[in-house]
Design a protein that fits this description.
The protein is built from ten helices and 13 strands. With 323 residues, it is α/β, with parallel strands linked by helices. The structure holds oxa(dethia)-CoA. The site of oxa(dethia)-CoA (UT7) has 18 residues, from helix 2, helix 6 and helix 7.
Length: 323
């Protein structure tokens, strides 16, 4: 059977760093509150004029260099983002154009913080049909552009960034020891859409709008939903927490990450955590963490890597990858 094997990773963070102390000069908050409630110390913010496609392109170029492939080898680009450059066309076609690719297909996928898991699963399905051979899957966001910088309950939580992986469809025996994406599980439930949303859009207000969140409500559902899709991944593959080499969760809140790992019985030393330095970068958070853990030597060939995310919609999902 065809499996989507990860050939390379890359990421990019804007130069500007915004610390909790910086935020305390903008809104009524403190370093202590932010660290205690979220684990976040700082986040990166895109420069004026620096767009989601710029971040995505930089991450994609690094992932391509890491994979040893040329841009022309790529025939599919999927960008997970909720902060596209424009309402249309897709940010993915801007990346495609700037990589000099004129064949294949490129599109965006919007599942908020679960965007990367949705994009990965979609690209995997398309590679497994044989319709495409090699994909760039990117999570890229400039959430700083949709934050209400007077709302302390949201503006302290998010940051900008991008991460990317290169996937190739390869024939594998069809066993648990195969390399590649072994399983993925996607969920959504729109009854929760008012708990985390943007209060604008082309068809409603004709504006971009600002992010609004009932944080406590989101928190209440997060751990259960995360555990649900991870249990599905374990059941589908006959694996359990002990088989996992690295747990790479969406980085929204250190308390959610710790509680999820604890509930699932995943040892804390297997958890990749970047939220302290990146904040919540929505669809970019998982590929940013993956790239960091791979480049510093933690994730190695043959490792079983578990991804999960949960976010606006609600959407939630998991993926299990043999590196
Ligand atoms: O990635 C997509 C999914 N999103 C998430 O996973 C986010 C999930 N939610 C969370 O991470 C947490 O709910 C938050 C970090 C957003 C908030 O933490 P919390 O422990 O749930 O705090 P809270 O909302 O219950 O607020 C506690 C208090 C409130 O004051 P009162 O009502 O107790 O007087 C807030 O007004 O903290 C206050 N507060 C702040 N104080 C200082 C809220 N934001 C701030 C702030 N600085 N930035």
């Amino acid at each position: 059977m065809i499996r989507s094997v990860v050939l390379g990773t890359g990421s990019y963070l804007p130069e500007k760093v915004l610390t909790n102390a910086d935020l305390a000069t903008l809104v009524d908050t403190s370093d202590e509150w932010i660290i205690q409630r979220t684990g976040i110390r700082e986040r990166h913010i895109a420069a004026e004029g620096e767009m989601t496609s710029d971040l995505a392109l930089a991450a994609a170029e690094r992932a391509l260099a890491d994979s040893g492939l040329a841009a022309s080898d790529i025939d599919l680009i999927v960008v997970g983002t909720s902060t596209p450059d424009n309402t249309f066309p897709a940010t993915a076609v801007a990346v495609q154009h700037r990589l000099g690719i004129h064949h294949g297909a490129a599109f965006d996928l919007q599942a908020v913080c679960t965007g990367f898991v949705f994009a990965l699963s979609t690209a995997d399905a398309l590679l497994r049909t044989g319709q495409f051979k090699r994909a760039l899957v990117i999570g890229a966001e400039t959430f700083s552009r949709i934050l209400d910088w007077t709302d302390r309950t949201t503006c302290v939580l998010f940051g900008d960034g991008a991460g990317a992986v290169v996937l190739e469809g390869q024939e594998q025996p069809g066993a648990l020891t195969d390399r590649g994406i072994l399983t993925s599980h996607l969920r959504s439930d729109g009854q929760h859409k008012e708990k985390l949303y943007v209060d604008g859009g082309p068809s409603s207000t004709r504006t971009v709008g600002h992010l609004r969140m009932e944080g406590r409500e989101v928190f209440k559902h997060a751990v259960g939903m995360i555990a649900d899709v991870i249990d599905q991944a374990f059941a589908a593959t006959g694996t359990d927490a002990d088989d996992i080499a690295w747990f790479v969760p969406h980085q929204a809140n250190k308390r959610i990450i710790d509680a999820s790992a604890k509930k699932l019985g995943i040892a804390s030393e297997k958890v990749v955590c970047t939220v302290e330095r990146h904040g919540n970068t929505s669809a970019a958070s998982i590929p940013l963490a993956l790239d960091e853990a791979r480049r510093d030597g933690r994730i190695k060939k043959g490792d079983l890597v578990l991804l999960e995310a949960m976010g606006g919609g609600f959407t939630w999902g998991s993926a299990l990858i043999r590196w």
